[in-house]
Amino acid sequence: MLTRPAGARTGRRALLAVACLGALAVLTSCSGTVTDTVSTAAEDSASAIATARLAIRQDADGKLTRAATSTAFEDALKEVQTSRDTVLRLSPASPEDRQVREDALEVLDSSAAGLTTARNAVSSDDGGPSLTDGEQALAAAEDALSQLKSKVGGK
Predict the structure, then answer these.
(1) Would you say 77 and 115 are in contact if contact means Cβ atoms under 8 Å apart?
(2) How many C-beta atoms surround the C-beta of residue 127 within 10 A?
(3) 3-state secondary structure of 4
(4) Cα(136)–Cα(124) distance, rounded to whole angstroms?
(5) Is there a contact between 141 and 108 (Cβ–Cβ < 8 Å)?
(6) What is the pTM for the complete model shown?
(7) Distance between CA atoms of 8 and 1, rounded to whole angstroms?
(8) Which of 59, 61, 63, 132 fits 69 for a cystine, CB–CB 3.0-4.6 Å?
């Protein structure tokens, strides 16, 4: 009959304990995934909106070329869309998490619409939205993102 040395049993127990701790860490990290992801998406989108607001002010003051302003808006729109895609891929398990996801998607959609309005205001020479309309749309988006961050315990 073969017997294992005492150290082998202890090693196996240690390995089992490490595996259990690893599983616990994964489960714990998943529990806040929806709110953490939404918080990050809101933070990233708010940063993009702030950059767009700066660009529209610089453009209005004649300190930024139309091409640079356009690039700033395109980059901001891409950031908001990336955040929206990330939130859309979430699979919330609880009704509360589903509601947070839906609220986030609504805010991110309105943020993208605000960016589009502002972009159109900058590029429009006649008949489109005014710069004031663009600034107001960005301010509304910034406010909605701030409220979302507060709701989910933003950074």
Answers:
(1) yes
(2) 5
(3) coil
(4) 16
(5) no
(6) 0.76
(7) 16
(8) 59
Place of tokens 């009704």: 95
Q: Which residue has the higher pLDDT, 73 or 9?
A: 73
Residues in the chain: 155
Q: Crossing angle, helix 6-31 and helix 33-60, to 10 degrees?
A: 50
Q: Is the pLDDT of residue 2 over 80?
A: no
Q: Which of 124, 35, 119 is nearest to 80 (CA)?
A: 119
First CA to last CA distance, the chain: 61
Token duo for residue 136: 């107001």
Contact 108, 116 (CB under 8 A): no
Q: What integer best gives the mean pLDDT of the chain?
A: 83
pLDDT mean over 7-31 = 42
94 φ/ψ angles, rounded to the nearest 5 degrees: -95, 160
Q: Are 123 and 66 spatial neighbours (Cβ–Cβ below 8 Å)? A: yes
